[in-house]
Structures are given as C-alpha cells and as structure tokens.
Design brief:
CATH architecture of the largest domain: 3-Layer(aba) Sandwich
Keywords: Methyltransferase, Transferase
CATH class of the largest domain: Alpha Beta
InterPro entries: Alpha/beta_knot_MTases (IPR029028), Ribosomal_eL30-like_sf (IPR029064), rRNA_MeTrfase_TrmH (IPR004441), SpoU_MeTrfase (IPR001537), SpoU_subst-bd (IPR013123), tRNA_m1G_MTases_N (IPR029026)
CATH topology of the largest domain: Alpha/beta knot
GO molecular function: methyltransferase activity
Mean pLDDT: 86
Low-confidence stretches: 1-35
Largest sheet: 7 strands, parallel
Organism: Methylobacterium iners
Oligomer: single chain
Order of helices and strands: EHEHEHEEHEHEHEEHEHEH
Number of helices: 9
Structural class: alpha/beta
Distance between the termini: 43 Å
Pfam family, one: SpoU_sub_bind
Length: 269
C-alpha cells in the first residue's frame, strides 16, 4: 500500500514524562496494530492540523519532549493523551528516513464524501492515475491554499492518505476531502451533467489556460507525469488547455502545474 509505513518494534520504548507544574498522564506500551480504517500521520503540520480537526478521531500520539512542548503551546489542550518518547522510538516505527519532527499520530481516516455531496458551485481537482504520494500530497497542500472543495481520484492507481502523502500535504488533508470514485471518466460525465466545466491540462492543447478564464463550477483534470491524460479522460473534458512557457523547459512537475492552473483560474477581483 503506497504511503503506508511498516511497523516494527524498536529497543527504545516510551518513557514516563516528568512535566513541570501540573502533572499529566502519559500512556505507555508498545505500538498497537492498525485497524483497517486507521492511518499514521507524522511531522509537525500533519499532526498539528489533525489535532485541531474535531472531525478526525484520534487514537495514539507519540511525541518527544521538545515537540510536545511546542505542540501544546500551539494547539492548547490535546484531544488525546500523549506518550513521551525519545526520537529513536518513533524512528523504530517509521524508519530512519522519515522526517517526523518528534511527532507520530495514529488516527482514523477521514470520511470521503460522495460526489453528489460536493457543492454545485465548487472548484475541484481530478487526478487521472497520479500515484506518487509526494506529488499527490503537494497537490493537496496547494488545493487547500486555493480553497478547492475536493479532489476526485480513483480507489485504484492512487496513494493512500497517510504517511508520506500526509507529510507532503503538510496538513492539507484536514481541509480538502478526497472523493474516491470507481471510474474517473464516469465521475467527470456526472459532474458535466451538473454543470461543471471540465478543464483538462494538456501540454499539446490548442487552447491556452489564460484563454479559459475563471469558471465556476469547474473541475481541473490532471494527468500522470509522462502518460498525461488517458484517452477516455480527455474525451470527457469540455476543454483541453496548455500552460504557456517562455523558457526552454516546456513541462512541469504535476503538482507545480496544478498550482499554476489554480492561480490562473482563480476569480478575478
């Protein structure tokens, strides 16, 4: 499963905190196995945003002493009793390459809304088999910055909203829901029937993105790097648009392309 981390026991276990002033309880014990609907989040922004999201059910928080002090100052009262641990304990769970910044959280996955639950005037993104969790996470972060109402993606050929993807999203998952559909083309057809303008990004398109202009409701359709949009996905778009470049490089990382498209199609003041 893409983006998930494999748990293993490490020699360094949780240790009891010795806080100054008011005494706080800390749970102890080895990591528990995840349930089917449980995800792992780590790093400052993903954990902080999840703790601030009342709609996210929390199960277990591991934190180093410095990270816990910073987190308590930023969030205030925590919704889950933390375990105070050394960094090595989190390394043992995530692996030494994970940039966890002293924070590890087990939580329930956020509920995925149905397609018909999205607002009729929404701006959406649709991902056509974009599988790299770093790219998807960066797209989620950008979508949160531009007020995107949801990201439509398929159950297959897409990463899970946990681990690496959540870290790359930098807390954006708490603000932009992932709408999981069985078939992307059929979902785009349904959105078209509801009045959404379907704008597919294509580097070879005849129409410039600048010529499309702001539209609502709308869905911007992004294809995987290298492959681009699949043929059936292209056929469901109302317009294919290109990003105009002035330099020698004529292509961008898909997350960068998403940011440019969202900026270009934003409502003008």
């Amino acid at each position: 499963m893409v983006g998930m981390t494999t748990r293993r026991e490490g020699p360094a276990g949780p240790r009891r905190a010795r806080p100054q002033g008011k005494r706080e309880r800390f749970r102890r014990g080895p990591p528990r196995g995840e349930g089917d609907d449980r995800v792992v989040l780590y790093g400052w922004h993903p954990v902080m945003q999840a703790l601030a999201n009342e709609g996210r059910s929390l199960h277990r928080l591991l934190a180093t002493e410095n990270a816990l002090a910073r987190l308590t100052e930023a969030v205030g009262s925590l919704r889950v009793v933390p375990e105070l641990v050394r960094p090595s304990a989190i390394n043992a769970l995530l692996g030494p390459d994970a940039v966890h910044q002293g924070l590890y959280l087990e939580a329930d996955a956020l509920p995925a809304p149905d397609l018909d639950a999205l607002p009729d005037d929404a701006l959406l993104l649709a991902l056509d088999q974009i599988t790299d969790p770093h790219n998807v996470g960066a797209i989620v972060r950008t979508a949160a910055a531009f007020g995107v109402a949801g990201i439509v993606t398929t159950a297959r050929h897409s990463p899970n909203a946990t681990g690496v993807m959540a870290k790359s999203a930098s807390g954006g998952l708490e603000h932009v829901p992932l709408v999981i559909v069985r078939n992307l083309a059929e979902a785009l057809i349904e959105l078209g029937e509801r009045g959404f303008t379907r704008i597919g990004l294509d580097s070879e398109a005849e129409t410039s993105l600048d010529a499309v202009g702001p539209k609502r409701p709308a869905v911007i359709v992004l294809g995987a790097e290298g492959k681009g949009l699949r043929q059936r996905t292209r056929e469901t778009c109302d317009v294919l648009a290109r990003i105009d470049f002035t330099g020698e490089i004529r292509s961008l990382n898909v997350s960068n392309a998403a940011a440019i498209a969202l900026y270009a199609l934003r409502p003008r003041a």
